[in-house]
Amino acid sequence: MAEINKEKNFSEWYLNVILKADLIDYGPVRGTIIFKSYAYRIWEKLQAIVDEEIKKLGVKNLYFPIFIPESFLRKEKEHFEGFTPEVAVVTYAGGEELQEKLVVRPTSETIMYPYFAKWIKSYRDLPILINQWTNVIRWEKRPFPFIRNTEFLWQEGHTAHKDHKEALDFALKILSLYEKIYQEILCIYGFSGRKSESEKFAGALATYTYEILLPDGKALQGCTSHDLGQNFSKVFNVRFQDKDKKLKYVWQTSWGFTTRAIGAIVGVHGDNDGLILPSKIAPYEIVVVPIYDKKNEKEINKFIEKIKEEIKKDIFIDASEKTPGYKFNEWELKGVPLRIEIGSEEIQKQILTCFRRDKKERFKIKLDELKNKINDIFAEIDRNLFERSKNFTEKNTFEVRDYKEFKKIMETKRGFILAPWCEKEKCEEKIKEETKATTRCRPMKIENWKLKIGNSKCVYCKQKAKGYWLFAQSY
Amino acid sequence: MAEINKEKNFSEWYLNVILKADLIDYGPVRGTIIFKSYAYRIWEKLQAIVDEEIKKLGVKNLYFPIFIPESFLRKEKEHFEGFTPEVAVVTYAGGEELQEKLVVRPTSETIMYPYFAKWIKSYRDLPILINQWTNVIRWEKRPFPFIRNTEFLWQEGHTAHKDHKEALDFALKILSLYEKIYQEILCIYGFSGRKSESEKFAGALATYTYEILLPDGKALQGCTSHDLGQNFSKVFNVRFQDKDKKLKYVWQTSWGFTTRAIGAIVGVHGDNDGLILPSKIAPYEIVVVPIYDKKNEKEINKFIEKIKEEIKKDIFIDASEKTPGYKFNEWELKGVPLRIEIGSEEIQKQILTCFRRDKKERFKIKLDELKNKINDIFAEIDRNLFERSKNFTEKNTFEVRDYKEFKKIMETKRGFILAPWCEKEKCEEKIKEETKATTRCRPMKIENWKLKIGNSKCVYCKQKAKGYWLFAQSY
After folding, report:
1. In whole angstroms, what is the distance from residue A328 CA to residue A360 CA?
2. Beta partners for residue A68, in sequence order
3. In chain A, residues 33-62 whose CB comes closer than 8 Å to chain B
4. For residue B450, is pLDDT > 70?
5. Which residue of B77, B119, B157, B394 pairs with B131 in a disulfide if CB–CB is 3.0 to 4.6 A?
6. CA atoms within 13 A on the CB side of A76
């Protein structure tokens, strides 16, 4: 890996590391990938965590068909226009030309909501809180593995509520959940906030997001939670009889978390030796490398069994015939958070030699201490990864009031820019045209920047600004 | 439900009960269904069990793209011919006509095996043991919910081995696993066996199956495990360098377990009051119905909390405003294995009134006994369901040597027929033409029929028979 440098050429490094670490292979159709077992295991662990959390909120899983009749997709005009350029279409099946074309789901609002209309009669049927874990298809112009796949995996949640407050609260509760997953599980810092009118989901009233800064100074949209208002309920006639006997349209949300998160993990944490995985989603939390000599094999294996019994973690024992040095490199490439090396010396002293992937540091620990300290060690690794991500993001987030400076930053080092904006689409367009930066979100809290909008002027037009917005070039 | 009788009109009963019990809704595209949350929860529980078992065998999950270039599907001739009439095809995407048509996966052999060819170099890379949980599309001529959906959910496992023995052993190990799942988890009796040449999977050397008898006397193929031999490895050039330095083609298997199993559960166990669910896959194992009067609400709720703490089961507390009688009917319809009714009398005596859905019997149990006995109660429920299924199947399985009798059975009561067959396709075809019965499998063990093939003659042509085969009209 030595020749490809993350700092110098991020995307080359990224494309190289996901192949070398055996996360993916390229599919035969442009923009598709094979999620190999090492990547899929990350996804399984992440799924289990997200699934448990959304179930705690009362959400139930179900499954809707992948094929959406084209006429369904057409019903919400903005939504249709937003997705039409990206859809894949089935035109024949069962040996026959189909009478109606079928869109392969890019998202499921338009197939789900006609059923909401059927299922919901009264306020007693609300809220509806559902979710599905599926594949979705969006024909990407510039595919990039995990980040923009033609086919990706996700969960899509959909809810219906009696009033706007309840719906908005729910959309924001999901945003908080996603933020928590990114910060506490994936150890990735970012900004939670609201999207601009031009950047929001096609058909939504408002879109909320978690925006991450990748090492090349470009932003990644980590997830989205949409306040759909009554846009879809009016189109699909989703109404309920309220306590006051009146028929009212429901208020809806939809929200998604995708395999793009794997790309974020790779990009944010990795280094020139390969992946660095946060402990909670690492396929193996620990790899044990036995250093056999001619006489110690039995003893070492007994010792390893003891470790496995004492520590209830996902442990891989690499007893293959490769050399220890080769194994060290391989498991560093694959980002296993903790390595334990066991040779004769370790057995004799009943001490373990450990290696932390994040800091690339060896340390020793007594076997009988490991059991009590292992959770602390992983917590410390995860904390360190999060701090690094936070520091990097803060270091590369610039408060800018002057447009020349804005342009210069985007031409040179890039990164996040916090700037006052009038919230008019024209300024947003001009900024994009001239700097390739788009609005990422209006952050909800800006911890380290004590920004008061006060009488600030829009960074572009110098008219009165409505708020501080996060700008960046984006993936 | 009273008017629709399972015994008199099975399919009408089935279609009625899956809607009433809220398992499905019909999708907008013919042959598709919405797996509603109650059905999806059954699938989730079943998935978790199957997933754990296959992982114990060393199988790893991954994910391949849903779109297969048509040229890939064409490579194995038999396979292509078998699946072509059933495929759905994407012809344009991203606003453009595609240069190559894309088949929406009906199964994934042809997209996976080119990668096997790439991934496998040496005997050290074997065996390959992988699996994916996905949706698949097969354009069914006569769709029937769960049993023959245009889109269904499944797991598909794929393995590659160094020799035929190892591959065949693996295919049979999976068949045993599926048999165990059907018998011990779903409480459904059936016959494990090998498919005939005309009924096997397109492209396989041999297909193994678990055949179930539904109440209308028709057979349901519960799952399949294929010994693919070297058919695909020769087409896709999947070779390895063996220890002897020679390049050899791998031996492969593939195997699948689908949402059809939900249809089997509904069909086999249900009665005229609705579903009856085996305990291990029931979304709720217990429903508690509080019988409130004016003064006991607090006390009852405290009592219920105590039950929830003591019994770690999936419990639903139905505290809605409906009458107890309404709730009883509703939860019987939904097949919850055990109901607990709690009113003032129960609290006073510290005794629970329970209702077993399978036997429709009430019984009393002391609160402090419930904790110790609950697992036995569920084991007894599941055992009873399995025994019923076994008795029904045995009662409707007929040993037949005379073709007139064969025809008469298929014209009247239907069911399984065990008959000697010469294994020539011509007899099989004639039997199908004349009786609608097909060979279901050559059973591997026939516990209660001491059948020795000896000098038996084929039930149709009276030439020497090769073995006893199971015949039935099938779904």
Report:
1. 11
2. A103
3. 33-37, 39-41, 43-44, 60-62
4. no
5. B157
6. 25
Reported pTM: 0.97
Rounded to the nearest 10°, the torsion over CA A197, A199, A204, A208 is -100
Cα dihedral value B129, B133, B135, B141, nearest 10 = 60
Burial class (CB in 10 A: 0-12, 13-18, 19+), B146: buried
Cα-atom radius of gyration of chain B, to the nearest Å? 25
Please tell me the predicted confidence (pLDDT) of residue A3: 64
Supply B270's token pair: 């249900």
Read off the pLDDT band of A368 (50, 70, 90): confident
DSSP class per residue in B46-65: HHHHHHHHHHHTT-EE-B--
In chain B, what residues touch A111 (CB-CB under 8 Å)?
A: 27-28
Average per-residue pLDDT in chain B? 95
Interface of A with B in 85-144 (CB under 8 A): 85-95, 102, 104, 111, 114-115, 118, 130, 134-135, 137, 139, 141
Q: Which two tokens stand for residue B88?
A: 């759905």
Give the mean pLDDT of A146-170.
98
Mutate to test the interface with B, among A19, A34, A116 (most CBs of B within 10 A): A34
3-state DSSP helix/strand/coil % of chain B, to nearest 5: 40, 30, 35
Distance CA A372, CA A393 (A): 33
| Interface touch A34/B62, C-beta < 8 Å | yes
Residues of A numbered 8-37 whose beta carbons fall under 8 angstroms of chain B's beta carbons: which are they? 25, 27-29, 32-37
- Bridge partners, A134 (sequence order): A154
Contacts of A133 in chain B (CB under 8 A): none
CB of B313 closer than 8 Å to CB of B287: no
d(CA B115, CA A143): 21
Cα Rg of chain A, angstroms: 25
- DSSP codes of every residue in B105-119: PSSSHHHHHHHHHHH
pLDDT of B3 over the 80 cut: no
DSSP string for residues in A331-392 = HHHTT-SEEEEE-HHHHHHTEEEEEETTTTEEEEEEHHHHHHHHHHHHHHHHHHHHHHHHHH
- For residue A321, give the chain B residue with the closest CA: B124
Three-state DSSP at A116 gives helix
A88/B102 CB distance under 8 A? yes
Query: ipTM exceeding 0.85?
Result: yes
Q: What are phi and psi of A251, to 5 degrees?
A: -110, 135
**B402 and chain A in contact, CB less than 8 A:** no
Cross-chain CB nearest to A27 (options B29, B39, B65) = B65
CB-closest option in B32, B40, B84 to A62: B40
Q: Which of B267, B255, B47 is nearest to B147 (CA)?
A: B267
Burial of B313 (0-12, 13-18, 19+ CB in 10 A): middle
Measure CB to CB from residue A135 to each of B40, B66, B150 and give the nearest one: B66
Q: Is the CB of A88 less than 8 angstroms away from the CB of B84?
A: no
Question: What are the chain A neighbours of B25 within 8 Å (beta carbons)?
Answer: 115, 118
Give the span between the Cα atoms of B474 and B266, in whole angstroms: 17
User: Running DSSP on this structure, what letter comes out for residue B124?
Assistant: G
* Among A154, A144, A61, CA closest to A106: A154
CA dihedral A236, A241, A247, A252 (to 10 degrees): -40
Q: Residue B164, Cα to own-chain centre: how many angstroms?
A: 27
Q: Using an 8 Å Cβ cutoff, are A417 and A406 in contact?
A: yes
User: Which of A119 and A349 is assigned the larger pLDDT?
Assistant: A119
